[in-house]
Structures are given as structure tokens and as C-alpha cells.
């Protein structure tokens, strides 16, 4: 049975991915800083998928915490076949409005976390001569957005990092890819006013938001042998956001 480690696994896209991988008979290590919800969710999932799920409280921006996650994951499931770097945060504001601690925090959680997860998990993948890594990027790392300077900078780093990782680790039969979501219909997104939600829907050429399960299905494809020929890619799953040049209709 294959094993995947998913960060940010206790909510949103990470939780959707957790449930999908379990349903497809993978072991899942749920890594999340929110241990209250994480433990509760893992217990419920363990009742449905006995022996397949393990929760570990993790600060993905902290070296020791990620090292402990690796040790616990190997102890629980022996080998790791895939890592999904899904944990991330959002900081709003023009660049001069962003506080230094907020800048550091988003860079640590959205970018440094990928470095730390790679530092600890990739050597084991190199030794076993196979593995896959999937990072959650964002359409805001490819295009510019108003009042999202720090977020765009962090996700822009992730967008380019995937290429170097894929080049460096391909010789070990390790694939690395990014999923590039746009506005996604998570519980957090639903906290927006209905007018804002409708505005996002109307901005999509197909008139809807991406659903968390859409992201989860792509995560599975890229993590599994279904995507064995895909590496170094930024794959957009975002109902067409980012394809418009902003020129007026002619």
C-alpha cells in the first residue's frame, strides 16, 4: 500500500485530498498545525479506514517539527511514496502595507516549508529510487493581483521552484509538480459576502468556482503512477482564471 504525507490536511483542499487518497487505498499522514480539528478528523477517518490514517501536529516552517514529522511518518508506515506540500497562508495588502512579521510568516509557511519537507523526505525517496512531490501554488504566482504582493511573491517562488526540483531529482525517479488553483470553493472562501462569491464565479469563463475535490483529484493523479510522465509542471486547475489578457472585447 502506498503512503502520502499531506500538509495542511485538516481542512479545505488538504482534507479533501486526504479523504480521496484514503478511498483509493493509500495510507495518509495528515500533517497540520491545528491538532484540535486534526485529531478529531483523523479519529473519524480511522473508523472508516482502519490502519490507513495517522495525524501528526506539525509546524511546516520549523526545522525540528518537520524532522519529527518525518521520523513519525517512517515509524508509522515504513516508506513514503509521495509528499503533498499543501500548507499555506494568505497575507493581504500592497507591499508597503505588509508588516515585516507577516512577510516573514508567509515566506516561511508557503516557501520555506517546501525546502524543509524536501530536506527531510527526499533523501528517503532517493534511497528507494522513486517518489513524487506535489506543491500547491496559485494563479496569483503566475499573474499579478491587486493587494496581494506578499502572497504573489511567495507563490511565484513556488511556481519557479518546481522546475529546479524536477531537474535535480528526476535522475532518482522522483517527479515534482505544482497544482495551480484559482478561487476554490472551500469553507474559508464561503465566508466572503455572496456578492464577492458571485463576482468570482462571473469572472470564470465557465461561470463557476473550482471545487476542493477538483484539486484533490489532480493531486492524486500527480502523486500516483497515473501521472508517471508528468514532471516540472505548473498545472492550472482553476476554471479558466488567468487566461484573459484583460483587453476589451472587440
CATH architecture: 3-Layer(aba) Sandwich
What proportion strand?
Answer: 15-25%
Rg estimate, integer Å = 18 Å
The fourth-level CATH homologous superfamily is NAD(P)-binding Rossmann-like Domain
**Structural class from helices and strands?**
alpha/beta
CATH C-level: Alpha Beta
**Cα separation of the termini:** 55 Å
Major beta sheet, strand line-up: 3-2-1-4-5-6-7
Helix content percent band: 40-55%
Q: What is the string of helix and strand elements?
A: EHEHEHEHEHEHHE
Total separate domains:
1
Unreliable segments of 5+ consecutive residues: none
> How many extended strands?
7
Silhouette: globular
Query: Quick one: biggest sheet?
Result: 7 strands, parallel
**What is the name of the CATH topology?**
Rossmann fold
Kindly describe this structure:
By secondary structure, this protein is of the alpha/beta class. It has one domain: NAD(P)-binding Rossmann-like Domain (Rossmann fold, 3-Layer(aba) Sandwich), CATH 3.40.50.720. Helix content is 45%, strand content 15%. It has seven helices and seven strands; from the N terminus they run βαβαβαβαβαβααβ. Strands 3-2-1-4-5-6-7 form a seven-stranded parallel beta sheet, with helices on both faces. Strand 1, helix 1 and strand 2 form a beta-alpha-beta unit. Helix 4 packs parallel to helix 5. The model has no long low-confidence stretch (mean pLDDT 96).
Overview features:
250 residues, Rossmann fold, 7 helices, globular
Q: What is this structure's SSE topology?
A:
Blueprint: E1 3-7, H1 12-23, E2 27-32, H2 35-48, E3 53-57, H3 63-77, E4 82-85, H4 100-128, E5 131-136, H5 149-169, E6 174-181, H6 194-203, H7 212-223, E7 234-237
Parallel strand pairs: 1-2, 1-4, 2-3, 4-5, 5-6, 6-7
Helix pairs in contact: 1-7, 3-4, 4-5
